[in-house]
Write the structure tokens for this entry.
Amino acid sequence: MTTNLIDLQHSDVIMATSNMAENHPVGFQWVMKAKERGAKLIHVDPRYTRTSAAADIHVPLRSGTNIAFFGGLMSYAIQKNLYFKDYVVHYTNASFLLDPAFKTPTDLNGLFTGFDGTKKSYDRASWKYQLDGEGNPKRDLSLKDPQTVFQHLKRHYSRYTPEMVEKVCGIPKAKFEEVAKLYCGTSGPDKTGTITYALNLTQHTNGVENIRSLCMLQLLLGNIGRPGGGVTALRGHANVQGATDLELLYHELPGYLAMPLRDAHPDLKTYLEKETPKGGFWTNKPKFMVSLLKAFYDDAATKDNEFGYQWIPKRASADAYSHQHMFVDMYNGIIKGFLADGQNPAVGGPNAKLARAAMQRLDWLVVVDIFLTETAEVWKEPGKDPKEVKTEVFFIPAAPAAEKDGSLTNTMRLIQWHEKAVDPPGDVQTDAQFICTLAHRLQKMYASSKKERDKGFRAANFTYGAKPDHPEMVEVLKEVNGVATEDITDKEGKVLYKKGQPIASFAQLTDDGKTTSGCWIYTGVTVESPDGKLINKAASRKPADGTDYLAHGWGFSWPANRRILYNRASADLHGKPWSEKKKLIWWDPAAPGAKPEDKPGKWVGLDVPDFNAFLAPDAKNGDKPFIMRADLVGGFFGPLNDGPFPEHYEPIESPTKNLLSRQQNNPVAKIWKVPDQKNELAPVGSKDYPYVITTYRLTEHHLSGVMSRYLPMLAELHHSHFAEISHELAKELRIENGEKITVLSPRGKVHVTAMVTNRIKPFIIDGKTVHQIGVPWHWGWKGVDQLPGSKGDITNDLSATVGDPNVYIQETKAFLCNVKKGVV
Amino acid sequence: MARTLAMFTDTSLCIGCRACQVACKQWNELGLEVPEWTGGYQNHAHFTDKTYRLVRFVEAPGAKPNGDLAWLLMSDVCKHCAQAGCLDACPTGAIYRTEFGTVNINQDVCNGCRYCVASCPFGVVSFNEQTGTAKKCTFCNDRIHNGLGPACAKACPTDSIQFGFRDELVAKANKRVETLKGMGFKDAQLYGADSGGFLGGLNAFFLLLAKPATYNLPDNPKLPQRNVVVDSLLSIGSAVLVGLGAMLAFRERGKGGR
């Protein structure tokens, strides 16, 4: 998320594409504040939800057609000349010239240049800029050259007309134009708008491109880095941001450093050469990587052993270890043991039937959770004879947040500390306790190992504080922050840090082993006071006031407590706010420079500048706000595995052929072949599965239901597991409101209560009626015994094992189903 | 008497998250209830002895300013009426008015006669079979006597439920109606804010976006006691008619006997 939820109150138009009121009700207070001020709220969603109830305009669009919609908006902004020209010319790569060999789907029937049909991947040789003699991209600031990114963009989206949007998305042309006019009106110096998204955009076979398309729209309207603007990414639960930052992911190390690949990154030198770009802030990557290795392996990491680089497991392939890969590999007998820590894939993951069958083939399964979940009891799934399941299952009862100290990093990068309210009961352990205890026991087992590869693990520290198996969480935070491994002095010999002191800023991390940092972006969250006390900034609690609306004294927002990223873009080329109304940071030419002998001038304002605070606007690169990018500008042209511009493709299962090109699906989407008909797919326009289905969450329940289905106060708020269907479909199928129905897909079926509502309407897609239904996915066979409705069938038994080609996220927001009256 | 406290529920800010409903259940330790099918998200259908706050979900086609479907969300609660039917009807004095103007049921004194259940114009008061007493929202009596606002207002993320002094909240509410009318919500109106209006004003009053009947609220709620005079006269009239009829009948019989 580039912005801050508090800042949403300054938006002129908010376009929610997710169900924010329902899934982020606390953050939604700022949307309501904006509305109280007179801001408009547009809600783009296939379903009419609690967010639509609060919205000025609800725009229903068929699930899986987001790029057609955002592309339509971009085209509208360009055709009607509503884009923010100064911003686009100077702060983005719109003016860069592309290689003449590069062609887009407009010319190649839905494909970009370089597609290899047998490998199902792109050769990106032509996806590049034309370079001048010094190796810099050539530019045309008039944006008129046909090879500019801008002209390519214009041509690419010229096919996305309001008529096409109507045909593909099912949004009537008049409604689309009303929304386009309203939202594109947020362009320019005086106005800003923000777009919220969540799993509604990510869970598709073009999930990453979906998000890129909305970011591009925001760049086009000049809405990034400015108050009331930005991209409002809403995370799926309280600490997903933290889990992502610390990288509980298969492809990255903490702080967004690539997880090394076995063949491409054989040693640290090669890794750093390949992974460090030539420009932008990421040129500091070696400092972050070496500090991370020092945090992992402490004194055992030395310059001579590449700081322990060889001890990190390497990926054999970039296409191998995602959630979906994992369950397919389990089913195929490749993975034999599984530790599910705070996760319930028997219910929560895609193709949950496959996930359960996979777990029933394991040798062992360890589940760490706060209740005996469906995953913990997968060996006695209803209808399954436990004797047939060979998996040995262990359950470790875990403490929820209220029973432990720690931090949560919320959707706006805000690290907030929480203190234990009560002790966990009985044998219940905190996660950290479990992990450290496990590590200590494993270290004992490995103590006598002579193997080189085990040295790192043997040397790694898993003790935080005085009691080895009772970690002090502030010490963990301090390790994440980073410390000096020896006394560090400046050029004049003045001591900056004594050994063991926390580092105050990631700008002071080094690549020589003198600093550690468990996650460089968090550096600064703990500091030492002059009298030697550790200050935990995540625990600070000074609310917003008249002088600091962004509440910099509340928690700590990475990086460097910045609340709005890329905020240099809130000022014009010369460092002045684009307008008084939308000022955030600006260049003060009279402010003292970094040192007394330096020229005066500094970036000042209402936020921590996301920029070199002393780099004058007229200095080299002083006018380029996007410092995390190698070329320092926002990217319209941005190569991903599926192309440098987002292009609409139909979901893998779709009721219609692609009306924009001959290319039906994302040509590089990942589709797994699983034995035993465990991942069957419905063909385009299937007669057996004629309806679109989308799956989602409700306010009253949490994720796979582990934190809500067992609590009567929450579980009783919904009568039973249900499907929302339109009056039109109900009439066709003679279904009464409240009646039991069966929803089927090629993978499975569920029995649910029909909720017939005005809030779901059929779409007219290319002249034909297409019905869509919605089914929440919180239910499973466990719950409160006295509340039969707290238990129900598993919605994810319907979804498929297919994924986005960049991150392999599943497509659970748009696939096909059938609906039958009664229990069949 | 202390300055009157009130809760102002601004339904234009309600997002139907039901944090109020859950906070109420939790603070007041109200037990589990098996939900009935109401046709939509709302549970339960009515106030019960275990549900004092209830978020209503009303689909109203065409009710948005632009003519679109509205989904009216309203967190409903005991109105703590200035002229409270339950209080008037209570024969034991169990129902009383606090120094803050709120209406409460003293559980130790309630004898379970249920006159209050019948006398509430809003169907708020419910009977609890286990305790044998009447139950309803206490305005978090324990909290307000300890310097805290009601649990529901505390939990509300969007300030749809506001707690404070009645006069201040009414002034704020009037301003809000004007703003909403300016935004095109032509039916925006306050319900129970006027102390010169029905039931002497409600100490839990509301801002509605549609006519009260849309939310299943009476347009002009009255105390059942107000019907006593008319009903009594009607009863007397009926008695007289019955008496006359009987006399006539006996006369006829007398004649026949003769």
Remarks:
- The first strand of chain B starts at residue 5 and ends at 10.
